[in-house]
Amino acid sequence: MNARDDAVFRVNNFFARNGSKVRMDLQAKLAQISGVLPVVQITDEDTTVSINTTSTSSGRYGGVIRLDSNESLIEVNNGASLKIEAPQTSALLYDTATNSRILVDNGSKMELYSSLLNGNDATVRFYGAASRGSRFDIDNNSTVIIEAEEGAAPAVRFRADGQFFVKGNSKLQMYNGGNGSPNNSANQGIEFANDGGVFDLSGVGTEVNIVSDFGPAIGGNSSMEINVREGTSFTAIGRSSTASGAIFNGSISNITIDNPLFFDFKNTRPNGGNIYSVSASSIFDLKNSNFAAWANGSNFDLEAEKYWNMIDFELTGSNFNTIRKTSDPESFNTSTFGPAGMTAYSRISANNARAVVDELRVPTNADKSIFGHVSIPEGSDYRSAFEGEVELEIEIERLTGEKETHRAVTKVDSIYGEADREGIFEVKLPDLLNEGDRISVLSAFRGVGEVGVPSLPDDIKIDSVDVFPIIPPKPVEFPLNTIGKTATHVQGYVENKEVEITATHNGQIFDTSDVTVDDEGNFILNLSDLTLKEDDEIQVFLRDAEGSAEAAGVINPPETNNARGNINPAADLTFHDVTFEPATTLIVEDVGPFSPVDPLDPELEVEPENKPELPEDQGQLSIDFISSFNFSSQAISVHEQTYYAQPQRLLNEDGTVKENEERPNYVQISDRRPDNERSGWQLSVTQNGQFSNQNGHELIGSEIQLFNQELVTAQGGTAPTLQEETIQRIIPNTKKILLQADCASGTGTWIYRFGDAETADKSVGLYVPKGANPEAEKYTTSLTWELSSVPENQ
Q1: Does 61 score more than 80 pLDDT?
Q2: Is residue 488 situated within a structural domain?
């Protein structure tokens, strides 16, 4: 058997249809297709033909599928696919077949792979001078992949009048790994070996990528025409062996690029090489497109040294070294483009794609900035927008319905400490955003001034976002920031009545499941199960019910947020533009029973107004608090009168008086002595002289009278004894015993109060008899309160 007889079969036609599945692993070529109008047709959805051969047939007698008659046709159509893996022979070969055609149409796919081909043994080869007028069509959403992994042969080789059309949103991916040595006349992606070659892209969405590692992308030193039409994308990367070599080689070449979506042509030769090697009568015609250029030896990963926005121009001359005409002679001229023309550049590119807004961060009410990201399509890939490349209009719709617009441009920036990225846009605001504010991207415009490409609504890929409430609740308020070691309860106040309350004792969580917040925002924290020591810390945390920030789309939310909501941090925590206030901490002090408590609710510590100065060394038997009696201003009367002291008032943490918080005047006594040291005690008071004014005038016969005497405690036990059950009269300069306790009574903390919530303003009286003749002056006196330990037998 000779070389041309190694075919598995020789036929006039080969058909695979109606979802057929054909797979062949061969040591020979598959088919010799001969005769009148020979056809290889693979058609219909899910029809697949897959061929793998180890044949090493070369030259005109190689090829996995070989056709040697005029008007031969290989057709892959209507969703079918053809895959040929032929490491050392051509995948498709036309031998002296005039007007032959390859057609991949209607969503079909062709994959052709070779590993080691040299000389003219291209992966797709139209052989012989008679093989003129050959045509390769890829149309209607179809895909062709041609890869020549190794060897000096081109990936596709045409003879005279060869034509390659990619259209109708189709894709061509071509790669030639070459033989490892740069060559201006080998290792091509496509070779037009004779004149009349055409390479044409048309149809919005059509995309071509040709990469030749060691040779031209398209070449052949013949006349050719290359058209890159509206809405198409064309990437061509090659490498010349010399600085004067190029990735597009042709004699008389006409290159037209008309409003493409994207093109990018690179000569990767170190220190640069030409894009085009053409004769002087050639024409390069760019229409309605941006245009960027990188000088020889430039770093292609950086932005272009030169850029023109939406320009038309024509170049001519050897290697396109002369400007023939330009739509903007002020910006594109010999001075700006350079006297060497295209030969000064190793990369040229244009991207007329619309900007795509692909990210809008969900902001929080801890933010003074709105961030997002913009990408620019480059063929089927995307890159981040360059600094200043895209301008955006952002709308903020407030909860009130008021709308405001802001402008932003893309830049290289960090979003709240993340790594810097290109394509970031930021709207900086003077104030924090508010919960419920809605953020929208209204428009994006890629260009400079009024010249550019506006994005369409479909290019804004993100929806509007709402500001998420991330700031934790205002920390709990307590009357004081200290508590005694013996405290069993503490009352707090919260603004947000929906909060969950948790607490720690020296960093250890303790049970707060029974804590509830009333309608006024008050709650009681039970400390009775804790053993408190001096300098211990009770920290009380509030968590709202705003929900998960992560689920709402917030990137990298703070640790204070979980599925329920936001909690006060244990210490200052900065998130974005706000430092969260830490949870309130109560410090345990060795004050024992010395902190005043509420005379109406002795379980709660309070801060009363006008606290008296008390000895600090009272020990375990102590007076903790005594109200000062203020009878306010009264009208002068010639008749006997009883004036009543104002009720006791309480203070807020900041020292201001709590409105509508009046308490009975009271005295607080604590007996914390151990049982074996305890004896009785008595409380007495002495009025140090009669009421008098600064002129020495006295209210003769007046006396302080204590009504509605009551004893209450938070600890239980036996109450001390009132010495006068109904009314106590305090006579000036006379010691008056008020309370008496024995060893079994009066233990713990007791409140000796005058009245209750209803009678607080009518329980401490100043009786002034007729004839006292008061003057219009301020009258005062002082009282000495004495708490004495009394032996048991006394």
Answers
A1: no
A2: yes
